[in-house]
Amino acid sequence: MKKLFIPFLFLFVLILSACGNNQTVNEDNKTETETETETFTYQSENGPIEVPTDPQRIIALTNGPNVMALDANIVGIDEWTNMNPLFQDRLEGVEVVSEDNLEKIIELEPDLIIAGSHMKNINKLNEIAPTVVYTWGKLDYLTQQTEIGKLLNKESEAKEWVKDFKERAESTGDAIRAKIGEDATVSVIESGNKEFYVFGNNYARGTEILYQAMKLKMPDKVKELALESGIYTFSSEMLPEFAGDYVIFSKNPDVDNSFSETILWKNIPAVKNNHVFEIDTKASTYSDPITLEYLLEFFEKSFLNN
C-alpha cells in the first residue's frame, strides 16, 4: 500500500509545482502589462516620445498655465509664470527653475518636463526626464490646450473645455456686437518704457477672444501693421492713429504711465467716451484657460456693463 502511495504523492507534487509555475508566469505577465501601461507614446512636434500616463512631478518651463488648468501636479515653473498674479494660489510651494539650472531640475526629480523648442539644454533635459517641446505660436490657442491634454492623458477634459469656452465666447461676442455695433472697432494697446505696442489677433492680452472668438473688428491701421506680425511698436504721438472706438489698455505697472495725463491721450475719442477698459499686463500675457476665463468675464462686464 505504501509503495502505491509514493507514486501518487510524487504526481501530486508535480501538479502543484506546475500550478505554481503558471501562477509565476501569470504574475510576471501581469507585472509586465502594468509596466507597459505606465507610459504611452506621445506624438510631439519632434517625433514620438515615451511619457508617463499619469505624471506626478512635472516641470513646466513653458505652458505651465495650460498644465495648471488641467489640475496636473507641477513641481517646477518658469519665473514669468510665477510672477503672474492669476496663478499665485496654484503655485504655492512650487520651485522656480530655468533650463540653465540643471542641478535644481535634477533635485526636483521630475517624471515629465515641458520646454520651449527655443530653449537650451534640451538634450540634457531629456536625460533627466522625458522632455516634450512646443514652439510658441505653432498651434492656435485652443489647439495648444488640447495638445497639453493629450500629453497629460486628459484629452477629453481639454476638448470639453475648448468646446464650452468657444460657445460662451461666441455668444458673448454676439451680445457685444449687438450693443456697440457691427462696425465698431477695438484695439489692444500696451504701455512700455518709451514706446507703445498694439496687437494683432493672436498675441495674448485677450486678442484671441476679441478678434477670433468674438469677431470684433480692429482698426485698419492695426490690421495693416499688426495683424500679420502679431505686434507693432509705435511712439506716443501715434496713439490716436491706433486707438479704435474701444481700447483695451494693457497697463504695465512697472513703466511710466504719465502719458495718461497728456492732452493727446485725453482727446482720443475712446478716452473721451469712456471706452477704455484697463487690464493688468502681468495677468494677461498668456492664452491658457485660466487667463482666458478671467479675460472673458472682464470683457463681458466691461462691454455689457454687467
Any idea what the radius of gyration is?
28 Å
Total number of domains: 2
H/E element order: HEEEHEHEHEHEHHEEHHEHEHHEH
The name of the CATH topology of the largest domain is Rossmann fold
Number of helices: 13
Question: Quick check: average pLDDT?
Answer: 91
Summarize the SSE layout with pairings.
Elements: H1 2-36, E1 39-44, E2 47-52, E3 58-60, H2 64-69, E4 74-77, H3 79-83, E5 95-96, H4 102-107, E6 112-116, H5 122-128, E7 131-134, H6 141-151, H7 155-180, E8 186-191, E9 196-199, H8 207-213, H9 220-226, E10 231-234, H10 239-242, E11 246-251, H11 263-266, H12 269-272, E12 276-280, H13 289-304
Parallel strand pairs: 3-4, 3-6, 4-5, 6-7, 8-11, 11-12
Antiparallel strand pairs: 1-2, 8-9, 9-10
Subcellular location: Cell membrane
Protein name: Iron-hydroxamate ABC transporter substrate-binding protein
Signal peptide: 1-18
